[in-house]
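Treating backbone geometry as a discrete language has practical consequences that deserve illustration. The amino acid sequence and the backbone structure tokens for this protein are reproduced below.
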Amino acid sequence: MMGRSHLIIGTGVSLSVLQLLGMPVTAPAVTVALIGSLLPDIDEPNSLLVSKALPSSLIRLLQTILLPAAVFVYFYIPSKPWNLLLAVLIGLVSFLPSRSLRKVLMFVIGLGLVFYGHAFAPWNLIGGSLLMLCTTLTHRGLTHTLYGTAVWTGLLYSTTQQQGPEIWVAGGTAYAIHLLADSLTNRGIRPLPPLKLRIRANLMSTGTKHGAVVENVCVVLTFILAWFAFSPLFL
């Protein structure tokens, strides 16, 4: 399913659930719902979430900076032959395609969170470690499992429980809805690896005309649910 459909469906359903349960729909809840609706696709560098967080303009800027950086390392770092090896490595990275460069940036950001982020918030150590792990995963792998859902919901619960349950409920629901939506595709998901159980409804293939029809139907159903949940506020 396309990222924009995940965004609408995951956010719409999770916020409707909050409203139907009588929980407040707050700005933090909306924020984690938006993130949670896209988060399982963090294992795909060209997904909507990652491409918006690390846009093409940033990738081009990085490529522009890396080559001069390689030259600087070679001529101004006295530790031979390591300066040559490091310069070659930096130069090679600058020629990587956008998808691979996003993975490199994700890994570097995760590494920074592990070594320096814990000074600001303890959970940054876990978040950084998970971010680095995601760069090694195949698409629709570990992040598209019940384990991934539990980790995301648990992180939200442990860090926001003082602010009310609506935050972790919204984020966890949006994440789970993403998995449910992907289970409609021909590829489906494996919710409990290493078990071979695969959930797939074979209703659509992402990027096809038929797939677009199924996605649009799901979006319309989401709007109907949202209308049912929120219309009493305006009547």
User: Anything to note?
Assistant: The mean pLDDT is 89. DSSP finds ten helices and no strands in the chain. The CA atoms of residues 22 and 80 lie 66 Å apart. Residues 209-230 form the longest helix (22 residues).
